Amino acid sequence: MTSLECARAAFAVLCENSPANHCRLEGSVLDAGKEVPGGWSSARTLTEGLYGGKAIVNVSQQRLGEEQVPTVEILCDDPVLASESFTSREGLVGLQEADGAWALAYGENAGGARGNVVLAVPASLCAVVVEAAAAVPRAVSYLLEQGVPQEEILWGWSCCPVVLPSLDGEAVRAAHRAAIAAHGVCSIWVRSTRADLETLARNWGDFRLRLHCLEDGKTYGASSGTGAV
C-alpha cells in the first residue's frame, strides 16, 4: 500500500473499533481524546497512520531511576515523509491527498478540514503518545532546515517517555516536553560527507540526538566519534 492508503486504512481501523476503543465517530471526525477518553490502542494506530505505514510503533516501558514509565518507541523507514506528515498545517498534522483533503489528520480542532480527522486535546492520552512519537520527524525537520539533503537521511529511531495526562493540558504539555528533553533519545542514520555532523548533533537541544554516518562509520552526538553505526 502507498502511504496515503496506509493513512486511510489506519483511520478505518479506528472507526471500526469505535466505541470499544473509547473513541467516538461523528461523520468523518473521530474523537480520540476530546470529549471521550481514547486510549493506548487508538493512539498507537493513529501514530502508525501518521507515519504512513512506514514505521514500527511500540508502546512499552523504560526505567527512569527507580521507576518504570510508559514509553513510545519508533523505528522509521521514511524519516523525510514523517517530517512532512508531522508538520502543522492549519492546526493539523497528517497526510493530505492531492486535492487537499486529509487521508488522515490529527489535531485539537477540525475547523473546516475535509477528509479523515482525529481530534484530541493536549491533556489526553492520545496527545501525549503522539508527542512522544514525534521525535524523529522533529529531528529530521531540523536537519532539513540545516541543509542536509533529504536523500541523505535514511532511517530513524526514537525512544521517549510518556507523561500520563491530567485535566491541566498546559501543565501536561510542559511536563511532557521536559521529560522528553531529559530522557528522550533519537538516532538518525545518514549517508553524508558533511564535516559538521558533530556540530549539528550537539546544537540540537530538545532531546539527545545521535547522527549515525554510513560514510565514515561514526556516531556523532552523545557518543561523538566513537563506535560503529
TrEMBL record:
<dbReference type="Pfam" id="PF02289">
    <property type="entry name" value="MCH"/>
</dbReference>
<keyword id="KW-0378">Hydrolase</keyword>
<keyword id="KW-0963">Cytoplasm</keyword>
<keyword id="KW-0554">One-carbon metabolism</keyword>
<dbReference type="InterPro" id="IPR003209">
    <property type="entry name" value="METHMP_CycHdrlase"/>
</dbReference>
<protein>
    <recommendedName>
        <fullName>Methenyltetrahydromethanopterin cyclohydrolase</fullName>
        <ecNumber>3.5.4.27</ecNumber>
    </recommendedName>
</protein>
<comment type="function">
    <text>Catalyzes the hydrolysis of methenyl-H(4)MPT(+) to 5-formyl-H(4)MPT.</text>
</comment>
<comment type="similarity">
    <text>Belongs to the MCH family.</text>
</comment>
<comment type="pathway">
    <text>One-carbon metabolism; formaldehyde degradation; formate from formaldehyde (H(4)MPT route): step 3/5.</text>
</comment>
